[in-house]
Each structure stands twice: as structure tokens, then as C-alpha cells.
Design goal:
With about 240 residues, this protein is α+β, with helices and mostly antiparallel strands. The chain contains 7 helices and 6 strands, in the order αααββββαααββα.
């Protein structure tokens, strides 16, 4: 009813303007002008509806994942200093997003080259997911994937990430990926195209974070999708695979 009433008011308003400007026109001309006014009014209605829909979607997304300040920061739970530095570097990707309760990396390694200790190369897909706590669920607020090559050097204190070559977006993706990964391109594409394996790794890293911090969290969830249960933690075996 509100929509019909608004449409009528717009048509009346526009028609008054038409009448005022249409003196001396034929009946056919006036009918055409009035039809045009009706179409313009409908366009206004549609624009308003789209704007209201976008605002509603934004509100729903914000309600779905709201910051609580109740979670500890992510910290790599394995014993290897090399991977501690790698995960810590990826965690800083959260600076590109609005602040959330916790940012958890998801790293899939395609290959490593340790032939030069001053330039250890780690080829893979490096992703960051930002979560807010909702009861027993980590609700994902944002995140992104950054495929590329990490350059790490060995130091007296341990290791340091020196630089990161990231694959380009859109039409530049395939060309830049081949340039960056070289003969490791096929290995990279194998892990990058496997969505199921990526979700498995993501869920396991979340579960190990929950266990390491003794948190009562059972699920994680992306906006618009059902909750997914977390697997059993496997800190001892999961991170030993990285050796």
C-alpha cells in the first residue's frame, strides 16, 4: 500500500508539472508526456527500493558479525620458529580490514626452496580470516586470499620475512602467477583450485587456536552459510607436517 501511494503521489506531482508546461500541446502529446512521467515515477520507486535493500544487507552483515573484544590474539601454536614468523607476517594482513575479535591465518604451502639461507622461498596461498565471537561460534567478518612467494632470511635471532611477491588480481592473475611461481606453478594451482582442502586446513587451524587458548568455541560460520563444526585439535601432528 505504501508503494502504491508513493507512486500515485509522484505521478500526481509530475503530472502537475506536465500540465503547467504542456499548454498548447495536443491530447496525444499530453498522453505521451504523462506516460513518460509515470515511467519516471516508477524509476524513482525502484531506485529507493534498491537503496533500502543495500542498507538492509549492510545492517544484516553487521549484525551477523559484531566485535566483542573477548578473544585473545592468534599466535602460532607449533614449536617451529620459522613458521611462527610466517604466520605472524600473514596475520598482519588484517590491517587491510576493519578490526575484528581475532584474525586467523590460513596458509597452504605448495613448495619451499631453502637452497639460499638468505633468501628462503615459500610458495603458497596465504589467506587471512577475521572473526568475531557469537556465542560458541566464530563468525567471519572479512578476509582475503594472497597467493604468492614469501622471501625469508635466516638471522642470528631466528628468521625474518624480508618481502612478499603477491599474484596480481583479475586478468593479471594467471600471467603474474606463472611469473612468480615459475616451475612451481602447477603445484600452486593444485592447492589453489582445491576449495575443499582449503576449508579443511582453515577449520583445523581454527580448532588448534581454540584448543591452545582453552576457548569454548564449537563452530565457525561465513555470512550467508550454515555453521560448520570444528574438528578435533591436532596441534602435535598438524604442525609437525611442516618440517
Amino acid at each position: 500500500m505504501k508503494k502504491i501511494k508513493l507512486l500515485g503521489m509522484l505521478i500526481v506531482g509530475m503530472t502537475i508539472g506536465v500540465v503547467g508546461a504542456g499548454c498548447g500541446k495536443s491530447e496525444n502529446d499530453m498522453a505521451a508526456v504523462q506516460e513518460e512521467a509515470t515511467e519516471e515515477a516508477k524509476d524513482v520507486i525502484e531506485d529507493n527500493q534498491e537503496s533500502e535493500s543495500e542498507e538492509a544487507d549492510s545492517t544484516d552483515a553487521n549484525t551477523f558479525s559484531a566485535k566483542t573484544d573477548e578473544l585473545p590474539d592468534y599466535e602460532y601454536p607449533g614449536p617451529e620458529l620459522f613458521y611462527y614468523e610466517l604466520y605472524d607476517y600473514v596475520e598482519d594482513f588484517n590491517e587491510d580490514y576493519s578490526e575484528a575479535d581475532v584474525s586467523i591465518p590460513c596458509i597452504q604451502i605448495a613448495a619451499e626452496d631453502e637452497s639460499d639461507k638468505n633468501d628462503i622461498k615459500v610458495y603458497g596461498n596465504f589467506a587471512i580470516y577475521n572473526y568475531n565471537l557469537d556465542g560458541d561460534t566464530l563468525a567471519c567478518a572479512s578476509g582475503g586470499s594472497y597467493p604468492g612467494v614469501m622471501h625469508i632470511k635466516s638471522t642470528d635471532e631466528g628468521y625474518e620475512v624480508v618481502s612478499f611477491d603477491v599474484v596480481g588480481d583479475g586478468s593479471d592473475f594467471d600471467k603474474s602467477a606463472k611469473e612468480i611461481f615459475g616451475d612451481k606453478y602447477d603445484d600452486f594451482m593444485k592447492i589453489y583450485s582445491d576449495d575443499e582442502e582449503r576449508e579443511t586446513v582453515r577449520a583445523q587451524i581454527i580448532s588448534n587456536y581454540v584448543f591452545a587458548n582453552n576457548l569454548d568455541i564449537q563452530f565457525y560460520q561465513d555470512y550467508g552459510w550454515d555453521k560448520k563444526p570444528l574438528p578435533e585439535q591436532n596441534i602435535d601432528s598438524f604442525y609437525s607436517q611442516l618440517d
